[in-house]
Amino acid sequence: MSLNVLWLQSGGCGGCSMSLLCADTPDLPGALEAAGVNLLWHPSLSQAGGAELVDLLERCADGRQRLDVLCLEGAVLRGPRGTGRFHRLAGTDQPMVHWVSRLATAARHVVAIGTCAAYGGIAAAGDNPTEACGLQYDDDRPGGLLGPHFRGKDGLPVVNVAGCPTHPGWVLDTLMALAEDTLAASDLDPLARPRFYADHLVHHGCTRNEYYEFKASALSPSQQGCLMEHLGCKGTQAHADCNLRLWNGTGSCTRGGHACISCTEPGFQDPGHPFHQTPKVAGIPIGLPTDMPKAWFVALASLSKSATPQRVKDNAEADHLVVAPPVRRTRLR
After folding, report:
1. By CB distance 3.0 to 4.6 Å, which of 92, 135, 153, 154 could disulfide with 158?
2. Ranges of each domain in the chain
3. Nearest-angstrom CA–CA distance, 317 and 184
4. Domain 3-198 in CATH 3.40.50.700
5. Do 12 and 75 form a contact (C-beta atoms < 8 A)?
6. CATH top-level class for 200-319?
């Protein structure tokens, strides 16, 4: 039996749908069909609209149409003053929060597509005049629209496929796991993200790791060195497999010369400093690797810098390889 999936968009840019549509699979509908996923409706892929769509939503909400997964992309807009009337679903005069709440209680599973739907994301940045939040989180605090105790009919909390935008592989793998009934609560991390990607760090597989080990840092985004010390990279803190599961099979933020801004984490949108700068105290970055004590980092960084090969120093501040590793007859012992 196919997994019936309804995909709605709320307060966001549509970037997660764009990411999915740009997936490296040549036939997204075919991939979904092969995985047993039946897309009831998607704003970019479906022809139905107007009264036909409203009828589908009503049938899903009252149980006449089986709804296995409700996917929401974009933050929930609760304003003004909790009424939700900043965002009304066209043709219904009802706030989107009304529809999401009704459909969530009817669905076997609820999936937040992207960091906005999961935690509020960019839509909740700054003063948050629209009162944007996630489905089950308000930033990193349990709550959101559905509340901390919400569970889908099959017992799972909202599954947070966080990312800004989210990786298409994370979405497809999550839907496939739900279709196979193999996603359990133990497969979600403490922020309800699927552990198959959230148990990794962006740092894992980064092509700049040699520079990180020697603390040989880039001074501008065009250079090859580590981006952590000066350019705001949070790859040692961000939970995602971006450098193991490359985007479109080829790239990631760090491979493109840009620092990781930790977009899978709640609150990434308000770091308190420019994204391209690393805040420091006494010359030491505030944001250290997730499980490294500061004293250890300082000691290891000092030792690493004193042992940095000249080749690594020269390459770190260049925009291309200027000194190749020496060739020696080592017999590889």
Report:
1. 135
2. 3-198, 200-319
3. 46
4. yes
5. yes
6. few secondary structures
Give pLDDT tens digits along the chain (333 positions). Answer: 799 999 999 999 999 999 998 877 778 888 888 889 999 999 998 988 899 999 999 999 999 999 999 999 999 999 999 999 999 998 898 999 999 999 999 999 999 999 999 999 999 999 999 999 999 999 999 999 999 999 999 999 999 999 999 999 999 999 999 999 999 999 999 999 999 999 999 999 999 999 999 989 999 989 999 999 999 999 999 999 999 999 988 899 999 999 999 999 999 999 999 999 998 887 778 887 877 777 777 787 778 888 888 999 899 999 999 999 888 776 666
Cross-strand partners of 5: 39, 69
Distance of CA 327 to the CA centre of its chain: 41
Helices (H) and strands (E) in the chain, counts: 11, 13
Which two structure tokens, joined as six digits, stand for 189?
A: 């991390």
